[in-house]
Amino acid sequence: MSDAVVSAEPMLEVSGLTVDFLTDDGLLHAVDHVTFGIARGETVGIVGESGSGKSVMSMAIMGLLPKSARVTGSVKFRGQELLGASERDLQRIRGSEIAMVFQDALASLNPVHTVGAQVAEAVAIHQELKGSELRNAAIALLDVVGIANPSARFEQYPHEFSGGMRQRAMIAMAIANDPAVLIADEPTTALDVTIQAQVLEVLERIQQRTSTSIMLITHDLGVVAGVADSVMVMYAGSQVERGSVEEIFYESRHPYTKGLLASLPRMDRRVDKSDRLHQIEGQPPSLVFLPTGCAFHPRCPFAETPGACDGEVPALQVVGDGHYSACHFPDRIGSDEGMKS
Ligand SMILES: Nc1ncnc2c1ncn2[C@@H]1O[C@H](COP(=O)(O)OP(=O)(O)OP(=O)(O)O)[C@@H](O)[C@H]1O
Ligand SMILES: [Mg+2]
Fold first, then answer.
1. Is the shortest distance between the CB of 23 and ligand 1 below 6 Å?
2. What does the alpha-carbon distance between residue 248 and residue 252 come to, in Å, rounded to a whole number?
3. What is the set of domains in the chain, with CATH numbers?
């Protein structure tokens, strides 16, 4: 993560990734031309409100979307195109090269099998281990993710694990085959703050061991601050800003990111009870009936309407070295002026 060595070698290259679903109301634009890359050993934070397309995007990368999804663009792993690859190739890559901790992780452990059996099964999919070797490999994984007394825990059932421990077990399953890329979809959301920090530490430790590239999905910009190298902010299926953690936190050039930042609790800001944290007013739009122009304009304190903001979809433009913003007026976003409070 921030202090890990990030190499320039791209592991995952996503470009123009677009996902539409045909629904009864019409075409739902879940992901719209998203482009980013993850280098070896890099952690990319993917941030956005509920419904912004974070999970759909990661399922598209994994090739796990239902047939009703129309997926276009390109997803390359070590230069190999995954979109349209055969199910056989995808099965080989999934789990061994690109693994995912699913958002509903706590629900995806099977209650009738021991945790150990499930971790062992994840190992056995890609490695030919049996008997005590397989058991030892699974116990070692429980140890790696920080589960104390792993051989006793191996025998226990999911209901005997706390939420944080179940999340660790899910991470153990995801890293069972030392994947090059780990996608973690909201791995800390259901957990309290202390356990959240511990789970993030586990991810950091895994990364330092094997230079794993991590895609960390969260709706909480605060979570990515300490662990990500770069950040992509999504709004209504589109990428609105992308840059290094420092640029996103200190030099954000998109009003939506600014709004997310303003709603973070801060140590250096006194919050009395009558002063609720700053919130972005309004709701995200329907992905079937997107507003004209910039999808964020109805909630944007800077929007010029009628004008560019409701007239034209803003293109992602370079606003700094490796820093991109999809705003018509990125130069106005430097200061806090104009932000609703
Ligand atoms: N199978 C599907 N068919 C139709 N629409 C879908 C399907 N799966 C997801 N969607 C829609 O795609 C949009 C993006 O959903 P997604 O789950 O990616 O959001 P998210 O950013 O992960 O949100 P959250 O933070 O709540 O997890 C939503 O409007 C969702 O209803
Ligand atoms: Mg999600």
1. yes
2. 5
3. 10-97+179-334 (3.40.50.300)
